[in-house]
Amino acid sequence: MRLNLLILLMLCMFSILICQKVSDAPVNNTIPAYLLAENSSQVQDYESDKIIAKQSYKMGMEAGSSMHDPTGFFLTGLAGGTVLGLIGAIGSYNLAKHHKPKLKSTPELYDQAEYNKGYRKQSISLNKKGALLGSVTGCAINTLIWVKIIHDATNSIHVIIY
Prior knowledge:
The longest helix has 50 residues, at 112-161. The protein is an all-alpha fold. The chain has six helices and no strands.
């Protein structure tokens, strides 16, 4: 029993470390519009719009970090991993990955589209981390349950033979 608890504790610690390392790096391979601009006023307008868009995106990400709660996806991963094992873990991660969080309201001072993009990206990232942590913990519990069942079954067979 102590060994089972020790293994469960180690798996939980390992799952926390894995979830902390999971991140999504944005990739942008487009040509900036200011390189295509014909005169300097277009360049200046584009630069100010670009700054506002970046600030709005960052504010959206900060709002996603502070306002969004991924607990539901952690519990979904925990239940899926415990009951269905790896299949449940994959399913709960995919649910978190494709979930589209919605904002109730956005500040009027920022670029709405960029603010929403930042919020959604951060929220989905938190959802995936929560689902992954719950899934790994659930799979560990599932494995310990099966190890216990097999151990008890082999002990009972061993007792019957002798």
